[in-house]
């Protein structure tokens, strides 16, 4: 695959996303630097040609091109864009003042109470450090920081030195560079982002700003930061770290290259910073921000077609939206070309559509635009109010969820609520468990994200008589499971003396107490729960199986209820030293609601 696969519709989709985000944010999200040779010009606005082409490839065929993939240079990009009918001109002069290479990402733990992490962040990043207060300590770095911070307030963050020779921290300190992005991490979430403007070492500056730790060591490896922004809501770190192949939880300063950052950056919120003013650029879209409640309301009020003589709404749009939600959950691009939509959604309509309904994927592909959840790019002028299938086949437009919807659906709870809304509102008479498995959402059938196996199936392994003649056959398999923190597992068990929080049973196994730590919101996909004490319960094996199997849940009053009816099992036992996160309980309740629907 290469530039020859980029379609006109993919370019238009990339341009619209760039217009929506702003040019600088768009480049950083996908790991591109500013265009120095050629720019695409459309409707009077200029766009970075390589960045547009790279993202256009994502929406044309499903995989992006990174800055390193353009081996033929800028001229190959120009030829392709011009062949698709776009105007490309010589680029503007580079005035960023930063290196024109794709940014790496620095993963920066904030530190806890022992390191005064929260106070230090408030002091030197959120509020900033007056340069006048550290002028005498800056020495040779005074001129550089004065130029970077004309308002006289510097945003600084430091790292302690390490005696190790070549661990993650050493490599990060050695290889990070000006222009890299920094993500601040605390309590299993990323909560802020910044860009490195300057790097220097100074124990004098560090002691003046932050003092020293309990061992008398100070944070002398210093980053001067710009474009600091705190996320509106902290971003769960586990999915992002997984894409970077970094173990969770994050325990050390870590650096990952631009290519890895490029693959994971879409999991982060859009930048709130305005685009750089030096180069004319389209202003970020000023559309009012969409809330999760707005999203769910739009999903629940689709303008679905009803056939004459039938009260049942058509399933075409709901099935298409479920397919689109599953793409977000499984890390696929939010937009897809018509050829992919026709094949994949067409198969869903044939199997799960209303009995007797025609398989017409072109209708939801086009009409979902009225939901304000959906966008289409690449429909040629003159196609009329409803493009014919032949037009779609020729033009290969791309369509999918809007950027605002896709970003909201990155949140596991919002995504789960969207699935519940679709299933309960439009798909009541469908085999929902089969449907979820078909679109790639089988993980929703259990609390741990690991689909149930059919224990009664012999999978064609042979008859009982054949198996009785010798050892039981074995089947090779490959699997991976999240790495759990044994310390908090032991902690929750100790808090309850290995007694089940539901039934208070204390088991003995091999002369030792036995209980199980159950995650409320599973660590597996698509739940992506955190491995923390607030997300754990201490249960006996029976109630652990029922909890993970979504047969019991904790209601808003703290009582254990049965998902499919029956008497309450009583209040969940709690220890004053165990603070359970109510949002995790809410997530599990919503999963049980979905299980109630799919188990009909």
Mean pLDDT: 86
Q: What's the total helix number?
A: 23
Please bin the fraction of helical residues.
25-40%
Give the termini separation: 45 Å
Largest sheet: 7 strands, mixed
Shape: flat
Number of strands: 20
Class based on secondary structure composition and strand pairing: alpha+beta
Low-confidence stretches: 93-100, 272-281, 454-466
Structural Rg: 27 Å
The neighbouring-strand order within the major sheet is 5-6-9-8-7-4-10
Proportion of residues in β-strands:
15-25%
Highlighted features:
600 residues; alpha+beta; seven-stranded mixed beta sheet; three-stranded antiparallel beta sheet; 23 helices
Describe the structure.
- 36% of the residues lie in helices and 16% in strands.
- It has 600 residues and is an alpha+beta fold.
- The strands form 6 sheets. The chain has a 7-stranded mixed β-sheet with strand order 5-6-9-8-7-4-10.
- Strand 18 and strand 19 form a beta hairpin.
- Helix 12 packs parallel to helix 18 and helix 13 packs across helix 14.
At a glance:
The chain is an alpha+beta fold and 600 residues long. β7 and β8 form a beta hairpin.
């Amino acid at each position: 695959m290469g530039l020859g696969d980029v379609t006109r519709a993919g370019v238009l989709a990339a341009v619209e996303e760039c217009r929506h985000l702003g040019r600088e944010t768009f480049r950083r999200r996908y790991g591109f630097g500013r265009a120095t040779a050629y720019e695409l010009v459309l409707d009077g606005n200029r766009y970075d040609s390589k960045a547009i082409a790279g993202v256009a490839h994502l929406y044309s065929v499903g995989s992006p091109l990174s800055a390193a993939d353009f081996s033929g240079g800028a001229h190959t990009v120009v030829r392709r864009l011009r062949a698709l009918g776009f105007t490309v001109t010589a680029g503007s002069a580079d005035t960023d003042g930063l290196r024109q290479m794709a940014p790496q990402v620095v993963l920066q733990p904030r530190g806890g109470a022992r390191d005064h992490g929260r106070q230090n962040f408030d002091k030197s990043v959120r509020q900033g450090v007056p340069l006048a207060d550290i002028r005498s300590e800056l020495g040779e770095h005074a001129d550089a920081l004065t130029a970077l911070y004309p308002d006289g307030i510097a945003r600084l963050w430091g790292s302690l030195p390490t005696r190790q020779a070549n661990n993650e921290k050493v490599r990060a300190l050695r290889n990070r560079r000006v222009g890299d992005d920094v993500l601040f991490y605390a309590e299993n979430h990323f909560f802020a982002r910044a860009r490195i403007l300057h790097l220097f070492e100074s124990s004098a500056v560090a002691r003046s700003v932050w003092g020293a730790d309990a061992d008398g060591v100070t944070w002398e490896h210093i980053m001067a930061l710009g474009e600091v922004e705190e996320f509106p809501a902290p971003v769960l770190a586990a999915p992002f770290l997984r894409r970077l192949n970094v173990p969770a939880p994050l325990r050390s300063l870590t650096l990952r290259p631009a290519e890895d950052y490029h693959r994971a950056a879409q999991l982060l919120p859009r930048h709130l910073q305005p685009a750089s003013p030096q180069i004319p650029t389209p202003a970020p879209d000023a559309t009012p921000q969409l809330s999760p409640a707005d999203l769910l309301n739009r999903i629940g009020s689709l303008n679905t077609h009803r056939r004459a003589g039938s009260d049942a709404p058509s399933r075409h749009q709901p099935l298409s939206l479920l397919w689109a939600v599953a793409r977000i959950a499984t890390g696929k691009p939010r937009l897809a070309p018509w050829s992919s939509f026709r094949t994949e959604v067409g198969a869903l309509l044939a199997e799960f559509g209303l009995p007797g309904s025609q398989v017409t994927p072109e209708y939801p592909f086009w009409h979902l635009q009225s939901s304000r959840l959906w966008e289409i790019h690449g429909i040629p002028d003159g196609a009329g109010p409803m493009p014919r299938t032949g037009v779609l086949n020729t033009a290969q437009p791309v369509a999918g969820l809007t950027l605002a919807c896709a970003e909201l659906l990155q949140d596991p709870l919002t995504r789960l609520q969207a699935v519940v809304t679709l299933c309960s509102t439009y798909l009541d008479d469908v085999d929902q468990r089969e449907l979820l498995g078909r679109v790639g959402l089988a993980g929703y059938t259990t609390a741990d994200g690991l689909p149930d196996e059919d224990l009664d199936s012999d999978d064609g392994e042979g008859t009982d008589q054949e198996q009785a003649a010798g050892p039981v056959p074995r089947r090779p398999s490959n699997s991976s499971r999240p790495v759990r923190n044994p310390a908090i597992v032991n902690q929750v068990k100790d808090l309850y003396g290995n007694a089940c929080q539901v039934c208070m049973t204390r088991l003995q196994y091999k002369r030792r107490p036995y209980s199980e730590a159950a995650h409320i919101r599973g660590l597996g996909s698509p739940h992506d729960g955190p491995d923390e004490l607030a997300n754990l319960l201490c249960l006996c094996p029976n109630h652990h199986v029922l909890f993970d199997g979504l047969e019991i849940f904790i209601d808003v009053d703290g009582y254990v209820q049965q998902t499919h009816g029956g008497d309450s099992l009583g209040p969940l036992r709690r220890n004053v030293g165990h603070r359970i996160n109510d949002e995790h309980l809410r997530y599990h309740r919503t999963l049980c609601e979905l299980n109630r629907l799919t188990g009909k």
